[in-house]
Amino acid sequence: MSALSVSYAILFYLATAILVGGLFYKIRQYWRTPAPLKIATTPAPVTQTGVVLRMAREVVLFASLFKSNKWIWIFGWMFHVALLLILLRHFRYFVDNTSLIWFWVPLIQPFGKYAAFAMLAGLGGLWARRVLVDRVRYISSPSDHLILALLLSIAGSGLLMKFVSHTDIVAVKAFFSGLMTFSFQPLPNDPILLVHLGLVATLMIIFPVSKLLHAPGMFFSPTRNQIDNPREKRHLAPWAAELEAEKAK
Amino acid sequence: MADFEVPELKETLEIPKYVDGAMAHSSPYIAKAEFQEDLGFPGELVENWQQVALDKMTDLRTRYRSFQVFLDICVKCGACTDKCHYYIGTSDPKNMPVARQDLLRKVYRRYFTFAGKYFPKLVGAVDLTKDVLDEWYSYYHQCSQCRRCSVFCPYGIDTAEISMAAREILDSVGVGQKYCNEILGKVFKIGNNLGLPQPALADTLEGLEEEVEDDTGVPVKFPLDQKGAEILLVTPSADFFAEPHVDGLIGYAKVFHEAGASWTMSSYASEAGNFGMFIGSYETMQRAALRIRKAAIDLGVKRIVFGECGHAWRVAYAFLNTLAGPFDFLDPRYPVPQHICEYTYDLIQQGKLKFDKSENDHMTLTFHDSCNVARATRMGDKPGGQLDIPRAVIKAVCNNYVDMPVDTIGESTFCCGGGGGLLTDDLMEIRVKGALPRMQALKTATDEGGVTHMAAICAICKSQFTKVIPYYGFTMDQIVSVHQLVSEAIILTGAPGDDEPDSDNEDSSDNE
Questions:
Q1: Does A249 touch chain B (CB under 8 A)?
Q2: Given this model, what pLDDT does residue A97 score?
Q3: For the segment A7-37, what is each residue's pLDDT rounded down to a tens digit?
Q4: Which residue among B152, B176, B200 closes a domain?
Q5: Together in a domain, B62 and B84
Q6: What is the mean pLDDT of residues B69-80?
Q7: Structural domain contains residue B330
Q8: How many angstroms separate the CA atoms of B232 and B237, rounded?
Q9: Which of A7, A31, B31, B359 supports an S-S bond with B176, CB 3.0-4.6 Å?
Q10: Does A235 reach chain B within 8 Å, measured CB to CB?
Q11: Distance from CA of A15 to the nearest CA of B (A)
Q12: 3-state DSSP call for residue B238?
């Protein structure tokens, strides 16, 4: 094992720990913080099933964004769907191809392969808006540009390995399988691969301390996840109940 | 007419290029110490205000999921940037919802996030300085908490939640807004926002009884503090004398009269509006809401009905049960509370009200969806009832009705420009400019649909519009209450010579 393989192994353990631990911490924080008032943006569903459907429309179709701005919707949706397909394609590095759950992994490969172009186009469109539309430029911080650069570099380096300069993917799979089973294998010493993996680890590390928290956070958005039934059912947060109990004394 | 430039109405609504600092000078008067202290806030800026403000931020983050989640999850996609009526009307980039949120978010990041603590420049985090505090005071009083941004945000981020939190933080360090906090003082001391004491109120209502009887020949009552009545009507105090509000109140009274209902108003809770929401204070809002519970218990009523008032209906519909419930002492067959439009609509459905729609034939109506009614409440059983029911009531009493452009009504409605605690003369510039999108839509409906009048179901909308529409070339009498239309068209059965239907018709035509 080279020093390089060892440092990448450590990097990925660290990145995974930060991603999982950080998300756990933030999700627990959102979960535990009460929403003391009913603030669903109406018209809103009046049943739990309705709320699940509303949330599904938001998560799968970006329904509110569609209402809001067709350009952001096209670029944003394209990027996210492409990212999903690409992530699914990468399962081939983590799933044992003799296992029962392997069957879908080959099926997704061609979709994931070309999705990378859609991801580039989506990110490019979003970045163009950030630079060209005066209002969006105004609200952008350096970090907003850097995250786009990071994602574009990840997609770009991935594409290079797929279409220009292949890397030893069997060895890459052995490396990650090794990380998961603690039977360490070397990582190919290929510059594009190292850049790609380094950037992915960076993305994992910044996830819980950046705006990427929108992924788990949107499920906790009270304006979207509340049932519109305040007259029918009394809604009382624990701290509000305490306040009430104190007053009653 | 004004010491600022009034926006020009064009053919269509245009999204302006931003002009930095265009409204930086706008700031409402600060509340005097006595009014601050009445509400339990410091009288003036406290010495260690930075620490107090940051502590308050932490307090709110742990009590309000919305605040914590919304501070974290904005991705700066830009979807909201062209949605706020104040941005469209002023071109000030800090009136874009995301930028308004960022005024608070950049401080949150600086003190409470890893990225902001160690890489402030990278994520736009800043220290909490006096300049930042002043900017909060200015721009969080350029938000009417209308929630239009939250409709269009992919995550439902509601700038109203951030504005309310910001105002609570400002109050907690001793910098409250004069308009809101003085009004809250009047509510607690006297019973309503306008400070009308019981005798004045009784006098006003007596005058209305005489006026309506002179007008129609029917003794329509306006009962006050009547114990044992079935229905408690809680209405915004502007309904007692402002135009066109009072014509709406006359409409409610005629509807109750026709339904044969026993009803009353309360001098103790003679105000539907709850400014506690504007300043974001749960405790203050609850204190104001509990007056209504107490009035209902003291008067022994069985139902509570709210008059035409937008933010009041939000607090009533969405928060009252939480703040002042449970209402298990009221008649369980009716929702608590009900909106007067729901009440009238039910009677229309049951065929209990008769109208002569031709009484409103001299007008072509459109309806302004009040922001807080449209986006924070419901009427009836079905989602969207808050949009359909007022229209159904108008259409039941008027022959000529045209909607404004579809992207300016319903859930996409534009605020009147005066909501959320901005209905004060010291904020006239932002009020006039913020009304631009609604005025543009009204112009379109006027040009294309021949609209002559705009009906509203909110005391703030009515006051704001009557004040600002002259700036845009309309006249203040073009604004009407929904129940004013009901009042014009309703046929009162108790009218003299009721047994001879012909004379009844003559009677009502005489009123013209």
A1: no
A2: 86
A3: 999 999 999 999 999 999 999 999 999 999 9
A4: B176
A5: yes
A6: 98
A7: yes
A8: 15
A9: B31
A10: yes
A11: 16
A12: helix
Tokens 């911080």 locate to A141
How confident is the prediction for chain B on average, in pLDDT? 95
> Number of folded domains in chain B?
2
Domain boundary among B176, B209, B236: B176
How far is Cα A45 from Cα A54, in angstroms, rounded to an integer? 7
Residue A232 above 80 pLDDT? yes
Contact A65/B318, CB-based, under 8 Å? no
Q: What does the pLDDT look like over B384-423, one tens digit per residue?
A: 999 999 999 999 999 999 999 999 999 999 999 999 999 9
Q: Which of A138, A207, A213 to mutate to test the interface with B (most CBs of B within 10 A)?
A: A138
Instruction: Give the residue-averaged pLDDT of A148-166.
Output: 96
Strand pairing of B453-456 and B303-306?
Answer: unpaired
Closest Cα of chain A to B457: distance in Å?
Answer: 17
Reported ipTM: 0.96
Q: How far apart are CA A23 and CA A10, in angstroms?
A: 20
Round to whole Å and give the CA distance between B337 and B424.
29
Chain A interface disruption, residue of B17, B61, B70, B73, most A CBs within 10 A: B73
Min CA distance, A120 vs chain B (Å)? 17
Do A138 and B18 make contact, defined as CB atoms within 8 angstroms? yes
Tokens 């060895």: give the residue.
A171
Joined together, the tokens standing for residue A148 give 């786009």
pLDDT of residue B235: 96
Does B92 map to a domain? yes
Q: How many helices (H) and strands (E) does chain A have?
A: 12, 0
Taking CA B162 as the corner, what is the angle to CA B161 and CA B165, rounded to the nearest 5 degrees? 90
**Alpha helices per DSSP H over A33-103:** 48-56, 63-68, 70-89
For residue B131, give the CATH number of its domain.
1.10.1060
Domain enclosing residue B49, as ranges: 33-176
What is d(CA B342, CA B459) in angstroms, rounded to the nearest whole number?
A: 17
Angle between helices B97-112 and B130-139 (to 10 degrees): 150
pLDDT in tens, A35-67: 999 999 999 999 999 999 999 999 999 999 999
* pLDDT at B363 exceeding the cut of 70: yes
**Given a cut of 50, is residue B264 above it in pLDDT?**
yes
DSSP codes of every residue in B5-30: PPPPP-SS--PPPP-TTTTTT--PPB
Q: How far apart are CA A23 and CA B393, in angstroms?
A: 50
Same domain, B328 and B195: yes
Nearest Cα residue to B484 out of B386, B365, B400, B371: B365
Q: Angle of helix A191-206 relative to helix A3-32, nearest 10 degrees?
A: 20
Give the mean model confidence (pLDDT) for residues A134-148: 98
Contact B71, B104 (CB under 8 A): yes
Residue A149 contacts B where some CB pair is shorter than 8 Å? no
